[in-house]
UniProtKB/TrEMBL annotation:
Taxonomic classification: Bacteria, Pseudomonadati, Bacteroidota, Cytophagia, Cytophagales
Protein name: PorV/PorQ family protein
Native species: Pontibacter locisalis
Keywords of the record: Signal
Signal peptide: 1-22
Domain of life: Bacteria
Length: 364
């Protein structure tokens, strides 16, 4: 246990140097589908979870939170539709404690746009339209996370965790990619205060792309573009620091107020605090609970500053809202947010509503 704790903190200390070395050859927004978020509780609170994640979704948000599971077996399922249902985001997880000081979880994520029409063969050699020649394909991103958490024997209230993730990305018959990375997290409880630290892609995540040149050759020649080549990309580390506080008003009514700060190192981003070296994206969320059965949630995240055609700028944040209900180990959560398609990392206030539905079940 001592060696595990020491290795964890050494890994976090090396994070800064790793991001500096990798900065030169890494694209911005690499594997960004892994930063959208999972679970209606979290998304209803503006993706604030680093310090307070305590269910089967913790394998994604902060694996250290797996030590707070209330039952022996825990299942979490989520379905959400983005951009008015064009994209589907699905998540499933199973988590369980191994003993009083450790826990394990396996999670799967799929983000996809399905039924895209391939019209390359729509017109035959005689110039006639053949609708039966249309084929359909999907653009899908997959990730599987295997998470492990262990309680520190050196510092009371400290929980540590790590997730190994395997990534598969597919663009029909045209291209696919495989990747591998590691996340690491920690949570610390002090009375009614909770602190969390999550280091995503702490070792940088390597993703290798392979293109089917034969399938693309004709279309690229007609448009005069160069054929794509097999490439590799690195996803730089991202640090998330979270703080939460629990308020108890009476025997039945309580609340959690929490905030997360996302630190990215892949160049200037359209966030509240940004520079060429590091960008900081704050978000805040609140959860009101009645008798630990009925929940009302809200959150703000994804600060954006956009410029209009007349040169004026507009500042906005994404509002989120959610409700939840829990009984006899079964929980149902619903969240709504709005999606903005102005920028690949933006989920902001002007766009179409997104609905997130989550189910969970825990039992002994």
């Amino acid at each position: 246990m001592n060696r595990f704790t020491l290795s964890f903190f050494v890994l976090l200390m090396l994070l800064g140097s790793l991001s500096t070395m990798a900065q030169v050859a890494t694209p911005k927004y690499s594997n960004e589908f892994l930063n959208i978020g999972v679970g209606a509780r979290a998304l209803g609170m503006g993706n604030v979870q680093a310090a307070i994640a305590n269910d089967a979704t913790a394998g994604y948000w902060n694996p250290a939170g797996l030590l707070s599971l209330r039952q022996k077996y825990n299942i979490a399922l989520m379905h959400s539709e983005l951009f008015a249902g064009i994209a589907k985001n699905d998540f499933g997880s199973f988590a369980m404690p191994l003993d009083t000081n450790s826990a394990l979880a396996v999670s799967v994520i799929r983000l996809a746009v399905d039924d895209i029409a391939d019209t390359r063969r729509l017109q035959n050699e005689y110039g006639y339209i053949q609708y039966d020649s249309i084929r359909f394909f999907s653009v899908a991103d997959y990730a599987m996370l295997v998470s492990y958490a262990r309680r520190s024997q050196l510092i009371e209230g400290l929980q540590l965790g790590a997730s190994a993730k395997i990534i598969y990305r597919n663009v029909g018959e045209f291209a696919n990619a495989y990747g591998f990375g590691v996340d690491a997290g920690a949570q610390l409880t002090r009375g009614s205060w909770q602190f969390g630290l999550m280091a995503k892609d702490v070792t940088t995540t390597f993703t290798a792309w392979t293109h089917n040149v034969e399938a693309l050759e004709e279309a690229y020649q007609q448009t005069g573009n160069d054929l794509p080549e097999s490439t590799a990309e690195l996803t730089l580390p991202r640090l998330v620091f979270g703080v939460g506080k629990t308020f108890r008003f009476n025997d039945k009514l309580s609340a959690i107020l929490a905030t997360d700060l996302d630190f990215t190192f892949d160049g200037r981003r359209n966030v509240l605090l940004n520079s060429d070296v590091v960008s900081v994206d704050p978000h805040v969320g609140v959860e009101l609970a009645y008798a630990k059965t009925v929940f009302v949630r809200g959150g703000l995240n994804n600060y954006q500053e956009t410029q209009s055609f007349d040169g004026s700028t507009t500042k906005r944040m994404q509002p989120n809202f959610g409700v939840g209900f829990t009984t006899k180990g079964l929980n149902f959560d619903l969240a709504m947010s709005r999606v903005n398609d102005k920028e690949s990392n933006a989920i902001a206030g002007s766009g179409t509503s997104s609905v997130i539905i989550s189910f969970g079940y825990s039992f002994n």
